[in-house]
Protein 1
Amino acid sequence: MKKIFVIIAAMIFSIYMFGCGKKQAAEEEQQPMSMEALSTLNTTTQTPATSEAAKAGESKPQMMQTPPLAAAKLEPLPPAGPYKPTGIEIQTALKNANFYTGTVDGKIGSMTKKAIEAFQKANNLKADGKVGPKTWAALSKYLNPAPSTPAKKKR
């Protein structure tokens, strides 16, 4: 009875070990490849040829090379949407445009929203207090103010 139990336990253990190995190999095959790995792949692959000689009963299959894959030029994807400015950028631009007097902390509070609305009204935009693409297009001009010209010294 002990021998049967040991044999069954050994069989279960071996099935478990071999099954996990196959599962892990299957998971590794499904992992996406990095761009570096894709670029290092060999561009030619060998496939068994079904020639007349192979059909005639030769035991050694002949291999033929397939043409190399066309090198695809990878270009960066376009941005998902319009640029979304940070709170600090918005407040800095509003401050440079003389619409915001608070501290530049990146938090869009009631003072910042009022400054946005005032800026939108002054620039004939929809005054909703939100910085959309049109508002940012007008406001971004004030993000980096032009350097002021220094006063001439008297001699």
Note: The first helix runs from residue 2 to 30.
Protein 2
Amino acid sequence: MLHNLEKIQKNLLKVKADITAAEKKYHRLPGSVVLVAVSKTQPHKNIKAAQTLGQIHFGESYLQEALPKIAALAAISPNIIWHYIGRIQSKKTKLLALNFAWVETVTDFATAELLNKYRPLSAPSLNICIQVNVDNSQSKSGVRIDDILPLAKKITLLPKLNLRGLMTIPNHQEKFEQQLAIFHTLFLEFKKLQQHGISVDTLSMGMSNDFTAAIAAGATMVRVGRTIFGARP
């Protein structure tokens, strides 16, 4: 068991080194890219192994699986920042609003309204990203590019939400140039929001197979799971 935890830590250090190298290669500011370790299906001891090396952002996709881990780690790792990166069901918005610091997969205003409704006044604003279906895939969630700006303008009116930016999960592409082109499309939409006076600062894109291209295109946050934790159980 110890061997597995040591492997996770070794993998994490390698991913962080690769991010640092990509920041340098593509003329990004050092430390400008946040790593979210995607811990879905991983037991909390694996999350703790990563957290001991200073990893604080973790991404979960399945609410019922995430809640026991959040509870178990609350006392021993209170600095963990939890990101929800799965599909949102309206009936679960209250639990999302109560337990996560980030919800990266908002695709409609009705969901945003519910998250705003259930976010406690005593808690910091809930960080929100709009999920974009950047390549119009039939199998992917997300808003179409033309719908980003209207939705963003409405979300900024909700007082307990903090619209941070855009997120995408594009179709798998093997070639770096193809990955870069897709990510650059979202980068342009991100800049468009800023040009319209919406103060977004987060572009969440890039996973295990393509985070280098995402950083080259302007990602400020990458979500890596398999490369850190290995194949999901």
Note: The radius of gyration is 17 Å.
